[in-house]
Amino acid sequence: MYHYTYDGTFEGLLTVVFEAYERKAWPASIEQEHLAQPSMFGQHLAVVTDEEKAARVWQGLQKKLSVGAQQALYYTYLWEQPGFEQTVFAYVKLVFGSSESIEGNYAAPCVLQVQQAAKQVHREKHRMEAFVRFEKTADGLFYAAVTPDFNVLPLIVRHFEKRYADQRWAIYDTSRRYGAYYDLQQVSLVQMELPPHRRQGVPATEARHAEEDTYRQLWQVYFDHVTIPERRNPKLHLRHMPRRYWKYLSEKQPRKLL
Length: 258
Known about the structure:
Blueprint: E1 2-6, H1 10-23, E2 27-32, E3 43-46, H2 51-64, H3 67-79, H4 84-96, H5 109-131, E4 135-136, E5 142-146, H6 153-163, E6 169-173, E7 178-182, E8 187-191, H7 212-226, H8 234-240
Parallel strand pairs: 1-2, 1-3, 5-6
Antiparallel strand pairs: 4-5, 6-7, 7-8
Helix pairs in contact: 1-2, 3-4, 3-5, 4-5, 5-6
Protein name: DNA metabolism protein
Pfam families: DUF4130 (PF13566)
Domain DUF4130: 84-251
């Protein structure tokens, strides 16, 4: 049995695929280095990310998969649920081992799993784009903290880059402890290790712009006035706006008097 570890990047995972084929040593497990558990059985192989090897694997997949299937495979990597690496590897192995397209072969567990994972990630991406709310800081930066179920930050930055092209902004993933920063020219993904008391990513009171509370309260007043009590439908409301997203929304925060 072969147990592979890698650095957690998509390129690293593709490098694992390359190494497994080169060695003809199929993985019994694939784990990120910092999460890997020691095993008494089998051989441990620590894979160093090689962008050239990763590119060769991806180019091979591009020749055999539609753009939609390529996206679904990448989304499965961002899905991050237990065993996702093995699902990706099984899918890639099925692709390279088949002379025909495997995209509609839902009898294969890995194909069905990739499609389901991609749908979940795609849904989370759109919800994050809809529910992210920025707070203006004292230095003019628009800041938002998010805690998505899946690693969708790389997928949503393009949306905010286009929508807020004239503003500096940062979005911080509190679960994964990294963020995206837009400096009016380009977006950069940056690691940010905050101290324990700041792990939730909320700006300190003194760091917030003086008018931020006023803007929030005005939005809450507007929301209250456009709401039609007779048309309230709590079940439908929760279906479209699950409770776990309420922490991002100004209209769901405790009210203060103006």
